[in-house]
Amino acid sequence: MTRVPRHKVLNALRIALAVLVVAAVALAVYRNWAEVSADLRKISGGSMLLAAALVAVAPVLTVLGWRVILTDLGSPLHLAPAGGIYFVGQLGKYVPGSVWSIVAQAEMGTRLRIPRARSAVAGLITIGLAAVCGFAVGLPALPLLFRRDDTQSVVWAVLLALPLFALVLWPRLLNWGIGLGLRLLRREPLEHSLSGRAVLLSGLCFVGAWLASGAQAWVLVRAVGESTVSPERLALLSVCGFALASSLAMFAVVLPAGVGAREGLLVLLLAPATSTSAATAVVVLSRFLTVMSDVVFAAAGWAWARSHHLITSRAEREHDGLPTEADDPEGAATDRDALTGDSVGDEARRASGHTPSGG
């Protein structure tokens, strides 16, 4: 009897679980559709446009943070190729599992002579650092998951969030954690530690992305117009609650893009301040805007990557009269240098062991 490989069994279980979760969410929305649709109709076109604009800010800031990390590790990229690689790879998060985005980005990065291992490490650091930043932004909303009007705990959570955020982003501690993680994964250590500047810049980018995403939830909640709490409490629930729900959902690696986990947590946070139907309307529309933003950015990134042969096959490159890396390494290197913005000075600094950092 032929034995089914373990990874195929795990993938099948992940897909089955993802289907069940998505089906449960869809069923819950269907059962309450009359109320949910009424709340959706309350959201004006202006609020929709503002929410969509805020959603679009998040991926831009995220790719900037990823680019800072990749540059500090030794592979500087201009914004266009960085977006082409990152945005197309991001569609992998909608596939059940935990590594497809990183695999896609690493594969595309090889066309620019970015080592797969370096791309993978940059992707893992980005995910981990983004999750930490999201939890720090969302920490003030954590007490409200358990007690609706626990103002004192919220104040303490706010006071705790700042030193916790500073501690986690302390370069020495962060590099130690990265080194430990790579050892546990049986991977080679970093060629050099992340610089404090790179950690600070990428952390600020990720915090800005979480605040922008949370702000779109706040716009939608306010547009629904049903609130039983103060405007300040509603803003905290929306902005911090969205960051908390999304960052925790990032650890639900068996679910595509955390679908279901984020929505469930956010409804738990928002429903006491509005209503269950209003909170459901907000999370449904928020998910729709997020997916559309990812698709639009991925389409733009795909068009750029396709036109610059980052996602074309060897046969297509040969058909277009372009050199392949195997046949013309010098030409490929020149093409890479034109896209990455590597200067002679940068090459010299890398050769001497001083890698340029920053964005």
Overall pLDDT, averaged? 74
The topology string of helices and strands comes to HHHHHHHHHHHHHHH
Uncertain segments are 316-359
Global shape: globular
Q: Treating each run of at least 4 consecutive H or I residues as one helix, how many helices?
A: 15
Instruction: Determine the strand fraction and express it as a percent band.
Output: under 5%
Helix content: over 70%
How does the helix and strand content classify structurally? mainly alpha
What assembly state would you assign to the polypeptide chains in this entry? single chain
Integer-rounded radius of gyration = 22 Å
- The total of beta strands comes to 0
Biggest sheet layout: none
Terminal Cα span: 55 Å
How many separate domains?
A: 1
Pfam family, one: LPG_synthase_TM
Subcellular location: Cell membrane
Protein name: Flippase-like domain-containing protein
GO cellular component, one term: plasma membrane
